[in-house]
Write a structure and sequence with these properties.
alpha/beta, 4-stranded parallel beta sheet, globular
């Protein structure tokens, strides 16, 4: 999404999954225009990025983008998130961890979507596991990817 930039005095190159990167590029200009307009009208307003499923990838990319372009650290709340970032080294992970303020990517342990793409080094901003894992449930995404409105799956999660 970006050319190499400097973080902590060292060069950082961001990589994201091409599909989610292309989706974000499609909305990025409009998001910047809207953000700048709202920023002028409400300069001290809290910024939140929220999404479910594919929208969660966009929300995470938005958190990183708002931090990089405007120096804002939004809160991020997502549900059923994919893993859009390709983490090549510790510096990239450190940078991504610094982008958001409060970041919660709620992922049901039995939701196969939250493990996509299933390749090493693909990650999300901050995964918060909820619900109970059962291998057989991974083959029923219709049920377990749409369960995030059920309050019982959040039992045991710290109060936000």
């Amino acid at each position: 999404l970006y050319d190499t930039f400097t973080y902590g005095g060292k060069p950082v190159k961001m990589y994201v999954h091409s599909g989610w990167g292309e989706m974000y590029r499609a909305v990025k200009h409009d998001m910047h225009v809207d953000f700048e307009r709202e920023q002028r009208a409400h300069p001290t307003a809290k910024v939140e990025c929220i999404g479910w499923s594919r929208g969660s990838a966009l929300a995470q990319l938005c958190v990183q983008d708002l931090n990089w372009k405007y120096g804002r650290r939004p809160d991020c709340y997502t549900f059923g998130s994919v893993k859009p970032f390709y983490i090549k080294d510790k510096l990239v992970r450190e940078y991504l961890d610094s982008c958001g303020n409060a970041v919660y990517n709620f992922c049901h342990r039995s939701d196969i979507v939250t493990y996509q793409p299933p390749f090493p080094k693909y990650e999300m901003l901050r995964r918060v596991d909820v619900g109970e894992y059962a291998f057989a449930r991974l083959f029923d995404p219709w049920r377990w990817h749409t369960c995030y409105d059920r309050l019982y799956i959040y039992a045991g999660v710290e109060k936000i």
